[in-house]
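Lecture notes, unit on binding sites. The following record was shown on slide 14. It pairs a sequence with S-adenosylmethionine.
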Amino acid sequence: MNTKTLRKLSGKSKNYRKSKTKISFVKDSPVTTTIAILKKIPKIVDVSVDDLIKSNRNDKIISLFNKTKIDYSWSFSGKTRKDTAYITHGYHRYPAKFIPQIVSRLADKYTSEGDLIIDPFGGCGTTLVESKVMGRPSIGVDINPVAVLITKAKITPIEPAKIEKEFFELKKKLETYSENTKVKIPEHERIDYWFRPQEKKELAFIFAVISNLKEEYIRNFFYCGISNVLKNCSIWLQKSNKPTRDFEKKPSDPIQTFYKQVKMMMRGNSRFYELLREKNRLKIPSQVYCTDARTIPVKDNSVSLIVTSPPYVTSYEYADLHQLTALWMEYTKNLSDFRKRFIGTSYHDKKRLVLNSILAENIRSELFKKNKKTAEEVATYFSEMNQVFVEMRRMLKKGGKTCIVIGNTSLKGVEILNAEVFVEQLYNLGLKIVDIIKREIPSKNLPSVRDEKTGKFAKISDKNKVSAYPTEYILIMEK
Ligand SMILES: C[S@@+](CC[C@H](N)C(=O)[O-])C[C@H]1O[C@@H](n2cnc3c(N)ncnc32)[C@H](O)[C@@H]1O
């Protein structure tokens, strides 16, 4: 964020000090300047909506964002796939995953070795892998058991000779497979929907062989491998993220595709293991839990840094995209129940929503004029995110930072100002703004586009598409 802009906004000179109200500008720090702007407004935790409106805080937040210029140093546009998929990061595809370099830069700036880092929406574990490399203990949480499986595999360095031996033994068993092999094939209409009988039987055999391995961490490594090739072995339209069948598709041979995947993972594992061994960080603790971001098993006031990228509103991708693994691993029998666990789905109950943000209330009212259901979905999303922020505040140490990577989007022609709303909610919960970084998402990392009518992710070629988030923000707040 531009310091000059902030100064203009506050109407104060560079070295202004006022001890009574604790407003202070120290040199050119954007941190103190931003805090100063908002400190002039009385604290409003537990105050009425009227008080909020009077304070004009939402206008100030909006202008703060409007004046924030793109900081190109955060685009990492020079990074290649090799850089972003280094060590274990390339094990498994995952939608909207972090560039690892964002995490390491934030961790480097805001923590020291030994400090605890948390990711409440851990996804495929990028934050945890980077934390381990940097010698910071970490905890990740995700509601998606597939994300947790991938994370477990990615954060566990395995002695290279050990995994080679395990793979050798596994291959010996898999090579006994023939058309006549007797295999217990799962009976599930969704598995039949996605897989032809031939691939289904071969996959069932691979799963059975892996499940017979003794050690859990070795099983997880191979389960993660098979999980990442399920799409290739199914009739899921390969280039689509949407669950679409392609009856023309010739699915890949499961055993051979699995071998290729495991070899790639073994190379990543060796590099990870060596890197940690060299730095003497093989034993840095890293833990992942399959739970809701609103109930994180971490003590109060114990966390130095939270780095996270939350789900987006009305996006079902995680449940839909990972249904193949969820079905084979028997994480769910019922896809619609699976979806309801995710924040940002269209499911909502009738409980009273606490948005804790005037901006969110305004967005809800605008949407209400267009579509009542969408308005309630978005309100539910903001209310649930506010609950996550309450949990984040509980865990953070005093002076601990939270870094939230989020973009804005639009639904039914209404701008959904996620970033601005999150800042307002966090501020209302007592956190201070440290910095707001606007970064450009290089096109290869662009998550997707949204269909203007449905709000769901769409193919680039679809009509009605609007760019979803070509830029995004990193919101840095402090307890
Ligand atoms: C944008 S992704 C995070 C990606 C992550 N930064 C990475 O690098 O892989 C958002 C994640 O939030 C998770 N999620 C959605 N609802 C959740 C909830 N109620 N509690 C915890 N995680 C949730 C999704 O499963 C998804 O993995």
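Take-home: The radius of gyration is 24 Å.
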